[in-house]
Write a structure and sequence with these properties.
heterodimer, A: Arp2/3 complex 21 kDa subunit ARPC3, 81% helix, B: Thrombin, subunit H, six-stranded antiparallel barrel, 5 helices, 12 strands, elongated
Chain lengths: 175, 282
């Protein structure tokens, strides 16, 4: 009985990983192709970061950081204007931060609560801090000014999308 | 060994994070993305293909930006066109002046008009050449089109020109067609006038007026203007003629100073005669 339960659990994890991979691929493509339609004056949401936070809060910190790295790497490959590797680094650290809020056995409840939105915002701020640090490293632009102008705005915009995800999750959970 | 395994299991998150951060830094240190150029070319090509599928969806933000950019471009282009038109007109004017300078027998000094002023119905222009260039008071100023006026004051680098649209103007002139003589004056406005011309004289609209041999302030045969209107007064035996100057004083930019002074002996004899007449009147 225990073996059957373990097998089913392992199968569930594998299925979820496949789902995450498909989601990451689709979101990456949507992000690259449709970003112009949802951007507001150069401010764009980071949809992949929402997925990274989701995985960290659902699967825990350890799986989260690997998911963050792989998704960041995937985005580095797709976004041909980025400094290669910065997304991997930023999303790995963001996943690590988000993983601190993981509670075993309460992940579904967490994803449908306002806490998910807050964790996304914190992760987005940390992510953008790291990302913009490398983005501006070789330029003459002031880091603080640029970060407060774009980094915070992008974090808030990402949080708005995370709120939508949270509301959808909450609605489905209540059904 | 077990303790090491326990340590790794206990701190797997931190070890994993450290490892992934090191890998990320290694990738960043590659720096030059051309090293993965081949793969990226495939990715870019694929994304481009996908993006093309979505190009039919209108994007209001992009359209707004494009509109703004096009409006700015339009403004810049219309400004450029205006500048080009101005250059074209200026170019034609300068070419005409150059051609005139080549064919005229007088020695000429080219000057730019740098200002104009009106003092008690006396119109003046200031030109950017003065005594340093050999200009002196009394010299005649003209353009390729016709007579402009006379130099009345000279400094080292500038000269003041009294133009013919001036209440003191009295120019002995003649018709180019039949050499009929008369005195041209100005009574305000954009036209010159010729008064007290007997009705019996053959004068037609369109006739060209030149400075005559009798004039002492200007060289002879300089075009003045064209007859625009001949007013015949039934109560009098004389006609009044309105003349449109050839020179457009409202858009005067370049002029020529004729380096030739009126004959001083001739001027002196006229001045002596005038003084004698005035003395006789007294």
């Amino acid at each position: 009985m225990k073996l059957i339960f373990e097998n089913r659990r392992a199968q569930n994890i594998k299925l979820r990983m496949v789902n995450y991979a498909i989601a990451a691929l689709l979101i990456s493509l949507a992000h690259v192709m449709l970003i112009d339609f949802i951007s507001i004056g150069n401010i764009t949401p980071d949809l992949l970061l929402i997925l990274v936070v989701w995985i960290s809060l659902r699967e825990g910190q350890f799986i989260g950081i690997f998911a963050g790295f792989i998704i960041g790497f995937l985005f580095d490959l797709l976004s041909y204007d980025a400094l290669f590797g910065t997304n991997s680094l930023a999303k790995t650290v963001a996943a690590f931060i988000a993983g601190y809020f993981f509670i075993q056995g309460k992940s579904e409840q967490l994803l449908a609560s306002v806490k998910f939105v807050w964790v996304t915002f914190i992760a987005a701020v940390v992510h953008n801090l790291i990302y913009f640090f490398f983005y501006l490293k070789f330029s003459e632009i002031s880091f603080a000014g640029f970060f407060f102008r774009y980094g915070i705005a992008m974090s808030i915009y990402t949080t708005v999308f995370a709120t939508v995800v949270m509301l959808v999750k909450s609605t489905r959970r209540n059904l | 060994m077990q303790r090491i395994i326990d340590f790794v299991v206990k701190n797997k998150e931190y070890i994993g994070l450290t490892a992934l951060v090191i890998i990320s830094f290694s990738i960043i240190s590659i720096g030059n993305v051309n090293k993965i150029g081949g793969f990226r070319t495939v990715v870019v090509g694929s994304i481009g293909w996908f993006q093309e599928l979505f190009t039919w969806i209108p994007n209001p933000g992009a359209l707004r930006n494009e509109n703004r950019a096009l409006r700015e471009l339009n403004l810049q282009l219309s400004s450029d066109v205006s500048k080009m038109r101005h250059s074209l007109i200026e170019n034609k004017k300068l070419r005409d002046l150059l051609a005139f300078k080549d064919k005229t027998p007088n020695k000429l000094i080219t000057a730019d008009v740098v200002g104009n002023s009106n003092i008690e119905m006396r119109n003046y222009i200031t030109i950017d050449k003065g005594s340093a260039e050999g200009i002196s008071q009394g010299m005649c100023v003209r353009t390729d089109a016709g007579l402009v006026g006379t130099i009345v004051s000279v400094s080292n680098d500038f000269s003041l020109v009294e133009i013919i649209l001036n209440r003191m103007t009295k120019i002995s002139s003649k018709l180019e067609r039949n050499r009929v003589n008369g005195v041209v004056s100005w009574d305000g406005g954009e036209y010159l006038v010729m008064k007290n011309i007997p009705e019996s004289f053959d004068i037609q609209v369109g006739d060209v007026l030149l400075t005559s041999e009798y004039v002492n302030r200007y060289p002879k045969d300089i075009p003045i203007g064209k007859i625009e209107e001949v007013v015949r007064d039934r109560s009098s035996l004389f006609m009044k003629i309105r003349i449109k100057p050839f020179v457009d004083f409202s858009s005067l930019e370049q002029v020529f100073v004729i380096v030739e002074l009126p004959d001083p002996e001739r001027i002196k004899i006229i001045q002596d005669m005038e003084m004698k007449l005035q003395a006789r009147k007294k």
